Every structure is written in structure tokens, then in C-alpha cells.
Amino acid sequence: MTMHERSGGELRATLLPTSTHTLHTPPTHTPPRTHALRSATTHTPRITSTPPAAQPAAAQPAAAQPAAAQPAAAQPAAAAVANGDADHLDALGRRLVTAARAEGLTDVLYRMLDTPLGGVLVAATERGLVRVAFDTEGTEQVLETLAARIGARILFAPGSFEETSRQLDQYFTGRRREFSLGLDRRLSTGFRRTVQVALPELPYGTTVSYGRLAATVGNPRAVRAVGTACATNPLPIVVPCHRVIRSDGRLGGYVGGEQAKSRLIELERSFA
């Protein structure tokens, strides 16, 4: 048993021997129960000095976890596209194009194709292929010209032009020497169209001078006009204006750039 006593202003604790006498301490010395409860009450603020109400607030971030899991819900859609739903979207696009054309709601369809010379835009009307354009020409400018010259109802049709794509692939791999696509020549008129119509008659893998072509179309003095007709050819590659060069052997101008013209000439010579 420990007894506390004050000595010299200090509180000392003395361990007293345990005896059976302490078991018979008169009940009058036991503090009343109400006093004990009152004492406990006075010490309660020390135990609960940290407000219990603050604990649920600390747990609130855990409640936000379901919201963080929301991005996972978007994964199936992204994975579906990555796993082949792009083909399904192409099919839907083709049906849209077919329906639009059946209702007469389009003037021009177009899409982009990859080639060894870079991306090219191909565009067509109901009459046939109307435009082949290199990246260097600027897609927006090409489309604006088509809207002004053909019609403003222009539809991007990525699932179309299968035959055009197939023939271009055959050409660049040496399996095709001339194209058999329907053509819409409305973007060329007069003498320019006359020259451009004659271009596919030039033998594959060969070149001729502007002067020689001028003579072939019946106007040998129209060398510059022939050069302009080749430079403004709306259907390069398919209509082979790259086979026409200067009389001194230099390449001359080309809508896709001199490098593209050189590569087309070399390509044909390698397979001729």
C-alpha cells in the first residue's frame, strides 16, 4: 500500500506493509461513490482533449475513392477501339456515305491516303476521281477550291476509295503501269484539258519534252502553255504529267515538288 505524505514542501510516497488489517478498513473511510463519479467527471476533459468529431473528417478522403475509380469505366470504350472497333466505325462511315450519295446530299467525297511520296488527298464526284493533291498543296486550300468549283457539300469518307487505293498501291510497287479509274475532268478546260488528256498516252518509264508534247497535241509553239497545263494538272500520278521535262534534260516544275517528280521518274524506270 502506498501512502502520500508531504515533508518539507515535497510530496513523498511511502510503501506501507500489507496486512490483513487494511482489509477491515471501516467503510466510513471509503470515499462516497458520488464523490468518485464527480472526480471522474472533473478529469474527463483531460481524456477527451482531442475532439472525437475530428476523426470522421480525417476519414473523408477514403470516401472519395469511388469517384477516383470512374476513369476505369472509360477503359472498355478505348480498348474496344484499339481492339478493332475502328473497322466497325469505317463500316458505319461507308453506310453514311452511301445514304448521303443516294439522297443526293454530297458534291464531293474525299479521304487521305499514304504513299511512298507522303500523304495525298483523293477526291471524287459521282463522275469519278476529280482531284489528287499532295500535302504540299495544303488540304484546306484544295477543299476550298473544290467547294468553289464543284460544290460546297464535301464529305470526308475514310472508308471509301478502295479501288483508288488499290491501284495506287499497285503502281508504287511496279505492278501497274496505267490507271483504269473513272475521271472527272471538270477542273480543267480548253487547251489545258487537251494536254492533260494526252498525258496518259506517254509510255510508262519514259520522258518527253514540253516542246515534243506541244507538237503532239497539234500546237508546237505552245510550249509554255503545255508547261502550264502540266503544272496545274489536278490529277497528278494518275495522269502522268511527271513524264514531261524540259528540253535540256532538267525536270521542270511539278505540283508535288521537284523531288516527288524525280522519284516518280526513277520509280517507273526501275520497273520498266
From TrEMBL:
It catalyses: a 4-O-methyl-thymidine in DNA + L-cysteinyl-[protein] = a thymidine in DNA + S-methyl-L-cysteinyl-[protein]; a 6-O-methyl-2'-deoxyguanosine in DNA + L-cysteinyl-[protein] = S-methyl-L-cysteinyl-[protein] + a 2'-deoxyguanosine in DNA. The keyword Cell membrane does not apply. Residues 108-184 form the Methylguanine DNA methyltransferase ribonuclease-like domain. It comes from the Bacteria. Its main location: cytoplasm. Residues 16-71 are annotated as: Disordered. Pfam families: DNA_binding_1, Methyltransf_1N. It is an enzyme of class 2 (transferase). The active site is at C241 (nucleophile). GO terms for biological process: DNA alkylation repair; methylation. Involved in the cellular defense against the biological effects of O6-methylguanine (O6-MeG) and O4-methylthymine (O4-MeT) in DNA. Repairs the methylated nucleobase in DNA by stoichiometrically transferring the methyl group to a cysteine residue in the enzyme. This is a suicide reaction: the enzyme is irreversibly inactivated. Belongs to the MGMT family. This enzyme catalyzes only one turnover and therefore is not strictly catalytic. According to one definition, an enzyme is a biocatalyst that acts repeatedly and over many reaction cycles. This is Methylated-DNA--protein-cysteine methyltransferase. It comes from Mycetocola reblochoni REB411.
